[in-house]
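Weekly structure sync, notes
Attendees: PL, DS, HV (note-taker this week)

Item 1: Succinate--CoA ligase [ADP-forming] subunit beta
DS walked through the input record. Source organism listed as Sphingomonas panacisoli. Sequence as pasted into the shared doc:
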Amino acid sequence: MNIHEYQAKELLAKFGVPVPAGFAALSVEEAVEAAKKLPGPLYVVKAQIHAGGRGKGKFKELGPDAKGGVRLAKTLDDVRAAAAEMLGNTLVTIQTGEHGKQVNRLYVTDGVDIAKEFYLALLVNRASGQIGMVVSTEGGMDIETVAHDTPEKITTIDIDPATGFMPHHGRAVAAALGLEGDLAKQASSTASKLYDAFLGTDAEQIEINPLAVTDDGKLMVLDAKVGFDGNAMFRHKDLMELRDETEEDPAELEASKYDLAYIKLDGDIGCMVNGAGLAMATMDIIKLNGMFPANFLDVGGGASKEKVTAAFKIILADPNVKGILVNIFGGIMKCDIIADGIVAAAKEVNLSVPLVVRLEGTNVQQGKDILANSGLPIVAANDLGDAAQKIVAEVKKAA
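Item 1 (cont.): predicted structure, written out as tokens:
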């Protein structure tokens, strides 16, 4: 689960992380009132969407010469003008794709004079099984470009959760950033507080870019991106309240209501599979046969008839889907339950695209009998290779 920048900063501030003053706004007037609460004379007006690259982004409705989603304002009139241009318009960044995201919220913060920018992030280092603190002197830039072109400028410091953040970790962060004296102490303190926030919120990622040194010698978090482990959110009811469903894909949001693992892709073959590994293999073999998957969808090991029906509806809601491949290995999941769900869903949505089903495992014959006796044009497959070939052939035939 992701949250907006202003929510991330408010959360980090609770752990003592230094952030500039700022206020969220849902309207132009609220943005102006937010600026009035700040000391000025420099303000920063930021579009709030769940995507990076806002400063370099462009608004669809404003033309190629318009400013991006992060703007400096020197007067209240500048704040008003920036807010009026951003709210309700679609911001396209390198992370949103060409469709972009509509800006419904703004964040007005106090402007600071920046002397130096750094990058700092925390994430789970799966290679070491520890928490990785990634730091770089190249803040304010695309960290992916830095990693590709100058990887020597990125340092990863692993922290064992069993011992936690230690003084030597803080010294390592300061050294990697080239900081000394009081700034080194501030870097160590800020890194320690960010580590506490990472553990305390069950975060998957905390990304600070930039972590800035101001002209008056203060280290401050100027931008923050925070994402949480969805599997741990039952422990954080307060964090769940920060969820902005308007930022999420409607199909993925609908899938979450049925505990379905669904991710929309750009292809034309809808997939319904049980098990993440089998789902990945199914997607791969579709591509191997010359077409592309329209989604990743794992119905899980114990799906009900209702869950399967919901999965079918979600797949068919995508107008790009030209055919569906169902690939089920029945262990805990019984093939006859899957078959019942497939038949019910196909009848309910008036299936109009080719459907190929491969079943194997528990109650497989009962499942095949249900499909065969359904009266629906369902194509049965013997194995995964056969299924992929058949769905590609059916889609091409129907085209």
